Amino acid sequence: MAASAASLKEKYQRILDAAVEVIAENGYFNSPVSAIAARAGVADGTIYLYFKSKDDVLRTAIDASFNRFHQQVLEQFETITDPREQLLYIAQVHLDTSTADRNMAILMQTEVRQSARFIAEFSHHHLVKYIQLVREVIRRGQSQGIFRKDVSDGIVAHCMFGAIDELLSSAVFTGRIYDAKTTAAQVLNVLLNGITSGREHAS
Amino acid sequence: MAASAASLKEKYQRILDAAVEVIAENGYFNSPVSAIAARAGVADGTIYLYFKSKDDVLRTAIDASFNRFHQQVLEQFETITDPREQLLYIAQVHLDTSTADRNMAILMQTEVRQSARFIAEFSHHHLVKYIQLVREVIRRGQSQGIFRKDVSDGIVAHCMFGAIDELLSSAVFTGRIYDAKTTAAQVLNVLLNGITSGREHAS
Amino acid sequence: MAASAASLKEKYQRILDAAVEVIAENGYFNSPVSAIAARAGVADGTIYLYFKSKDDVLRTAIDASFNRFHQQVLEQFETITDPREQLLYIAQVHLDTSTADRNMAILMQTEVRQSARFIAEFSHHHLVKYIQLVREVIRRGQSQGIFRKDVSDGIVAHCMFGAIDELLSSAVFTGRIYDAKTTAAQVLNVLLNGITSGREHAS
Amino acid sequence: MAASAASLKEKYQRILDAAVEVIAENGYFNSPVSAIAARAGVADGTIYLYFKSKDDVLRTAIDASFNRFHQQVLEQFETITDPREQLLYIAQVHLDTSTADRNMAILMQTEVRQSARFIAEFSHHHLVKYIQLVREVIRRGQSQGIFRKDVSDGIVAHCMFGAIDELLSSAVFTGRIYDAKTTAAQVLNVLLNGITSGREHAS
DNA sequence: AATGAATGAGTGTTCATTCAT
DNA sequence: AATGAATGAACACTCATTCAT
C-alpha cells in the first residue's frame, strides 16, 4: 500500500518531469502529448488521469517551480533583513534555481514568454509577484535612506529581473556555465552602486 | 512593367506586414498561413512564391526589423562619440523602435523566445550582435577611464539589454504606454551611476 | 449469505437501471461505461463482472423490458378473448408500460432504432414477436367474421404498432403527457372502424 | 470551366452520397469521417472544404431529402384537391421516395431517431412539418363533411405517419420489396374507412 | 505570376476493457 | 467479489504545402 501510494505520487511527478524535459527540448507546440507520455513511460491516456489537459501539465509544472522559488525567498527573509542583502539573495536564488533545474529554466525562457496566451497570461502573475517582492525591498531601502529616492522602484525592479533573466537566457542558449553566487554579486554590484544613496548621477 | 515590379515589391512587403500583424495577435502556432494570406490580400499559394515556408516569412520579418535597428545605431555613432551618450542612444532607439512598431515588439517578446528552435536560435544571432555593440561601447568607456574597469563588459551589456527588454515586455503585456526618452534616461541613470568610475561599491 | 446473494441480485439490477437512466439521458454513444458505473454506485470494472460488454447491458435491459410486456399481454389473454378487446388491451399496455418507465420508452424510441446494428437487429426480434401477436388476433377476428377479410393482417398489424409507436415517440420528444387509456381508445376507434366487417371502403 | 464547376458540384454531391451510404451501413457513430471520405474518393480534409463538420454533412443530406419530399407534395396539391386523394398521394410519395433512395430511408429509420440529440431535434422539425401537412388535409376533410369530426386530426395524422413509417422500417430491416402504390392503397383503405363520416364506431 | 482546391499527416482527447491488488 | 488505475486504439478536425489551371 505504501508502494502503491508512492507509485501514484511517482507517476504524477514523472509526467511533470517528462513534460518539462520534452517541452524544454522541442517547445510546447512541438511536443505531442504522446511524446511526453513516452518519456514518462506511461500510456497517452494516463496523462489525463493526472491532468485535465496538456496545458494543465505545463501550468502545474511552472506553478510548482515558481512557488518553490517564492517560498524559499520568503523563508530566508526572516533572517536576512538588510535590503541590499535581500536583493542579493533574490538574485542568487533566481540564478541557483535555474542552474539546478536547467530544463525548467529553458522552459521559462521560452514557453513562458510565448504567445500561447493561456501560458503567457498565467505566468505573468508569477512575474508580477516577483516584481512586487523586489519593489517592496527597494521601497524599504529608500525609506531607510539606503537607496536613492529619485529612482522609480518599479523601474529598478524590472531592471533587476530583466538583467538576471537575460543573463540566464544567454547562458541557457549558449550552454555556458556560470557561478550563481559570483554572477549575482556582479549584477548587484552594478545595480546597488547605481541606486545607493549619496551617489546621484549629475546628468 | 514598372507597375508590375512595384506590385511585386508591394506584395512581398504586404505579406511580411500581414505576418507580423497576425502573429502578434495570435502567436505563431495559432496563425495559419491562410490567415496571413487573407490579411495580405493574396491567395494562400502566393505566399510560397515569395517565401520558402511559413518559418521563412517570420525569419525575414525579424531580420529586417533588427537590421533597421542596427543600421540606425551605426549611422548615429558617427556623430555621437561619448560612450555614455552612445549607450543612451541605443536604449532610446531600442525603446523607440518598439513603440513605433508595436506588433513587431510583441512578436519579439513572444515568438522570438519560443522554443520553436528554428526561430530562437536564429534570432539569437541578432541578440549577439546587439550585445557586442554594447560591449564595445563599454570597453571604449573603460579604456577612456569613464567606466569602472572592475566590472565585466559582458555582464553589463546583458544587464542593459535585459533591463530594457524587460521593461518593454512588461509594457507589452500590460498594454502600458511609456515615453521612450524618459524611460531610457531612467534606466541609464541607474546603470551609468553603477558603472561610472570613481564610485566603486565597497562590498 | 442471503444478504450476499441479495446484494448480488441488487447490484445486477442497479446496473441495468443505471444504464437505462443514463442512456435515456445522453444516448448510447454519449454514455461512457464509467457514467453508468457511477450512477449505479459501483466501480467501472464491476460492470464486467455482470455483463460481457457495454452492449450486453443495453441488450439485457431491452430484453427484460420487452419480456415483461409480452408476459403481461399473454397472461391477460386468458381472460380477454374478444379480438377487438385484445387489440385494445395491447395498445393500452404498450402505452402504459412506456408511461410507467419513461426512460425505457425514450431509450426504445432512440437507441433501439439506431444503426448500431447489434442493437437494431437484435431488437427487431422483439418487434417481430409483437407484430405476430397482433396478426394472430386479427386473423382470429377475421375468421370469426368480426374483421374484414380483404385487408392484410400483416399490414394492419404494422399500422397498429406504427401508429402507437409514433404517438409515443411524439410524446417522448415533445415531453407531452398523455392518458394511456384515452389515447389507446382513440387509435383503436379509428383502426377498428377501418377494419370492422361490413364497412368496406368502396374505393 | 464548365468542367470545373461541374466537378465542384460533383464533389459536394459525392460526399453527401457517400455519407448517406456509409452511415446507412454502419450508423453515424460507427462511420469515421475517413470512411466517408474514402467512399467519396476524396481526402479526409476535403470534406471540411464543403461542410462545417461531420454533423453538417448528415444534416444537409437529411434536409435535402425531406425538402424534395415536401416540395413534391406541395406541387401536386395544386392539381389534387380531394382530401382523400391528397392523403393517398402523401403516402405514395412517402413510400416512393424511400424506395428510390433506399440508403436515405435506412438512415431516416435509424439515425434520425437516434439520441444524437443534435440530429434528433433537428429532424424533429421535418416530422412536425409532415404532421402539419396531414392535419390540414384532415381538417379540410372534416369541414367538408367527408371525415368524421369526432376524431382528433393530430392523432390521425400521427397514426398515418406512424403506420407508413413502420411499414417502411419493417421493409428496410427485412429487405422486403414492396409496391409503393399498392401498399399506400392498403393503408389508406383502412385509415379512410376508419375516419370516413357516417361510420362512427359505437364503442 | 497568381490562384485556391486538394491533400494527408499530425494531434489532443475519450473511453471500452483489462488486470493487479 | 470488487476495485479503479492503466491502457492504447480510435477519431474529428487543422493546416502547411503542392500543383493544375
From TrEMBL, chains A, B, C, D:
UniProt keyword terms in alphabetical order: DNA-binding
Keyword DNA-binding recorded: yes
Any one Gene Ontology molecular-function term assigned to this protein's record: DNA-binding transcription factor activity
Pfam family, any one: TetR_C_4
Source superkingdom: Bacteria
Annotation: DNA-binding region: 32-51
Family annotation (PROSITE patterns): HTH_TETR_2
Residue stretches making up the HTH tetR-type domain: 9-69
Designated name of the protein: TetR/AcrR family fatty acid metabolism transcriptional regulator
Organism: Granulicella arctica
Lineage: Bacteria, Pseudomonadati, Acidobacteriota, Terriglobia, Terriglobales
